[in-house]
């Protein structure tokens, strides 16, 4: 490969939000110009926590929305390959071949898996969720990804991938590159409720596709300092979601520092702080909305990108699986059996 490859993506569970943007999309926009970029629509991963018929029926629509959000955020469609994970069965083949290179205790130490089970209401860990990092390793290694931009939750998953790649190469030969993890500048973003990270399942998100009025409404309802009952009461900036968003999305640093100083001194109300945040967020989202409108006007573009990307990726994955099977000796095992069967067949035919 003359150009290094990047693998990234999301589960198709709905539209993307600001948490996705700071956790990974900003890095994707920045990096995809430098790398040959594959964007996975990870619907098999979705099945680990959402696997009803209704969930699956929503995959196609959610996939379109997800790709539209990524393009609207600034990814150039000419420099990105989007593909639907479930449409490439060879990914499952590679997952099967890799799963014996990691132990159950190692997977149980991945911290985010228990959180995912809890957040999805699972009382016990499904087998597929425990193996989530192995399937993710198959995703990365099937296209020989060398760069993986992820949020904090997936950092431990990528480390499992690195371990599996090293173990495979040591056992069978140098087939896989060892992928490099690139973490976001802002690892995660607290939700508008201030209780946990921004998450679709919690309903505490600001979507990349929200219109200006919706953004303002959500911002005005944001959690702030619960001990601050009046504007003249000194407030706490640290841990305050409104100021966390100002720090990330408001480029007017002088304004942000002035608001913080006055907030700590009890000289500004929550309404003014939130109003200025809504203005900053809408200013940030306006170019994304404009690009989204252009993409939606180009009917068939997103579906075509997914189909062409999936077909291209499947060719790549087939080649990788062939290399893996050859390195492991699996192809020679069957070849030996087949040749013996053919020789036996010829011997029987010759004796007649």
Automatic annotation (TrEMBL):
ATP binds at residues 11-13, 19-20, 151-153, 189, 197-201. PROSITE patterns: AA_TRNA_LIGASE_I. Its EC number is 6.1.1.2. GO terms for molecular function: tryptophan-tRNA ligase activity. SUPFAM superfamilies: Nucleotidylyl transferase. InterPro entries: aa-tRNA-synth_I_CS (IPR001412), aa-tRNA-synth_Ic (IPR002305), Rossmann-like_a/b/a_fold (IPR014729), Trp-tRNA-ligase (IPR002306), Trp-tRNA-ligase_bac-type (IPR024109), Trp-tRNA_synthetase (IPR050203). It catalyses: tRNA(Trp) + L-tryptophan + ATP = L-tryptophyl-tRNA(Trp) + AMP + diphosphate + H(+). A motif ('HIGH' region) lies at residues 12-20. A motif ('KMSKS' region) lies at residues 197-201. It is found in: Cytoplasm. L-tryptophan binds at residue 139. Pfam families: tRNA-synt_1b (PF00579). Belongs to the class-I aminoacyl-tRNA synthetase family. Catalyzes the attachment of tryptophan to tRNA(Trp). PANTHER family: TRYPTOPHAN--TRNA LIGASE, MITOCHONDRIAL. This is Tryptophan--tRNA ligase. The gene is trpS.
